[in-house]
User: What shape does this take?
Amino acid sequence: MEELSCEGWVEVFSEDDVNKIFNKFLDNYLKVFNANFPIIISKDSTKSNRWITTGIKISCCTKCNLYIKYRNSRDPTHRLHYKKYCKTLSAVIRAAKRMLYDSLIQKSTNKAQSTWNIVKSLTNNKTNSNKENINSHSNNQKAANSFNQYFASVADIIINNLQKTKCPNKHDPVNYLSQQFTQTTSSFILKNSTTHEIYKIINAMKPKNSHGYDEVSVRILKMSAPFILSPLTYIFNTMLSKGIFPDRLKYSVIKPLHKKGKPSDISNFSSYRPISLLTSFSKVFEKLLYNRLYHYFDQQELFAKEQHGFRQNLSTETATFSLTNTIFSSIEQKKVVGGLFLDLQKAFDCVNHGILLSKLGFYGIGGKAHELFKSYIEDTYQKVELKDNLCNNITSEWVPVKHGVHQGSVLGPLLFLIYINDLTRTIKRLADSVLFADDTSIIISNSNVRDFMYNINYVLQELDNWFCSNLLALSFDKSHFLQFFTKKQNELKIKLTSSNSILINTNSTKLLGITLDNMFTWKEHTATLITKLNKACFAIRAIAPFMSPKVLRSVYFSYFHFVMSYGIIFWGSSNISNNVFKIQKRAIRIIANKNKRDSCRQLYFQFQILTLPAQYILSLVMFVIKHNEVFIPNSEVHDLNTCSKYMLHYPTTSLSLVQKGVLYSGIKIFNHLPAHIRASSNNVKQFKCKLKNLLLEQSLYSIDEFYQRTFT
Assistant: This one.
C-alpha cells in the first residue's frame, strides 16, 4: 500500500475524457496490485485431516506396536493395556477434531455451509456439489462456450417466440405507460459525489474475495480505499458531467448457478442461472448511481406500492402479509376469491434496453443522466468462467449482451423494478396485486360468480397484452391459478387460457419460499419444512461428538433456527406447527446430549433459545412494531378514556381462519403483553430485548399458555 500512498494520480486529474482517465487509473492501480499480489499456485489442503498432529501420529504407531505385542504374546495384561490405550487415543482424537471443527465453525462467515462440509467429511458423503459437477465435465472449454452462447441468446429465442404469437392488442410501451401514469414534471439531477460518500460506500461493502475480470476483490479494494478516494471521486464526477460510463467496467464474468433438475446434466442450460461477477470499481460507481436513482423515485413516489422487492423497509414478509391479508378480507366478506401466481421466463435477461431507456425518459431521467444510463446499459460484454479438475480457470470468449440487466449487479434489480413499474396499474380497477421483483401475484374477488369469472379472464388478457408489449413472456409451467375458500364454500371448476396456453389450476403454490394452500391449512408448507429441519438435525447430530455445546448452539442458529423461523408469523399459529416444535425439541436435546424423554424447558433457558411458540410471538409482535401503520390503536377509533385506549383495535371478524391471520393475532398478542413492555414500543431495540427476555423466562410450549399467563 506504500506505493499507492505515494501515487499522485497526476495523469488522472489532467484529463477530462472518462475512458482515458479511468484507463490510466486502472492501469496504475493494477500495476501496484500485481506487484504486491503475485499469483501463487497452491495445493488444496482442505481435504487433508488437519486434526492429525505429530503427537497423534506417534500415538497411532504406539498403538500398532502394542497390538503386535499383544498378538504375539496373548498376555491378558498386554491386552488390557492395549484396550486402555485405544480408549485414551480415541478420546484424544475426538478432542483434536473438536478443536479443529470448533475453530472452523467460529471463523466461518457461512456457518451452515461449513457445517455441511464437516458433516460430509465425517459421514464420507461423496455427493458432488453443483460446482464439481460442472467442472468435472470432460470438455470444459466446450461447456464454457455452450453456456455463454445460451445465456447470450436465450432472450432472443424467448422474444422471437413471443412475437410469433402476434398479440392483437399490443401497445407501444411508453404509450401504455402514459395511460397509467401522469408524466412527472420533475427532472432527475445527478449530484456530484464526495470522497466521504465514496468512502462510506466502500466501507459498507462486504469484504468478499470474489472478483471480476480484473481480479481485484472487494477485500483488496477496502484495504486500498484511503489511497484512491480522490481519483475515484474525480472519475465519478466526470462521468456525471460527460454522461459516459467507462468501457472497461462493462465486462462481466458469468458463473452458472444451478437452480433445478440434476446438477450432472449440464446440457440442460435452462436449469442454470447466470450470476454476473462485475469489477469492484463498477460496484462502487453503480452504488453511487443507485442511491441517486432510488432516492428520486422514492421522493417522487413513482414506485408502485404493490412492489415489495429490492425496496427499503419491504421484504418477502411484507409481500406475503399483503397477499394473505387481502385474501382474508375478501373471504370475510363472503366473496369468491382466486389468485393468479405468475412467473416470467428469464425476466431479468429479457429486459429490452430500448424500452427501459424510454421508460427512464418518461419518469424524468433526461439529459446527461439519460446518456449515462444509456452508456451503462448498452455495449456490454460477458464471458462464462468454469474451472477444471485442477482448479484452472476455463473461460469462453467475450460476447456482446443485447438484452437484460445483470443478475448480481447493484443497479440491475432497480432498473428491473422501473421496467415493470406500470404493470399493476393496468389491472388495478379489478384486482389487487402483490409483486416481489418478477414474482407476480394477482388476487381477484367478487360476490358474484359470473362477474368473478369475467374479471379473471379480463385481468389475464390485460396482463398478457402488457407482457407482450414489453417483450416479456409468461412461464406457463410455473404459473398457477389457485382458488381460496373455507370449508363452507365450494370450489369452482375454472379453466383459464392465455396465448393459447392453459394456466394450471392447483390446490397449492409456492410463493417466496412459503407454500400456500387453498384453505390455509399449512400442511404442505410444514411437510416441506419438516424435511429441511430433519436434515439440519442429522447435521447437528453428526457433528455433536466433535463440537462444544457453545459451537453447536451457533450451528443451531445458522442452520436450524434460520429455516424454522422463516415465515413463522404466517404458519406458527396453525395446529400442525406442533410437528415442527417436536423436531426443534429433538435438536435441543442433541445439543445438550440428553435422552429423547428428557424435558427441554430448562434447556431452552440454559441455551437462551426460544421455543417455537415463543419465536412465533416474538416475530409476530416485531412485525406489528415495525409496520405500525397497518395496526390502529383504539385512541384513533374513539375518544373514550378507557384502560385500553393505547391498545390496538381489533378488526371485526367471526372466522377462525381470519383470527389466526397475522393482523388479528398480532393485535391480540400485543394487547396481552405486560404494560411496561407495550410502553417501550417506540424504542424498537429496547422493546425487542424486553420481550425476548420475558419469553426466555417463560419457555412457552403453546400460544394458549401465553394467553393463560397473567403478566404484571
Q: What stands out?
A: Confidence is low (pLDDT under 50) at residues 127-132. The longest helix spans residues 76-107. The first strand starts at residue 251 and ends at 258.
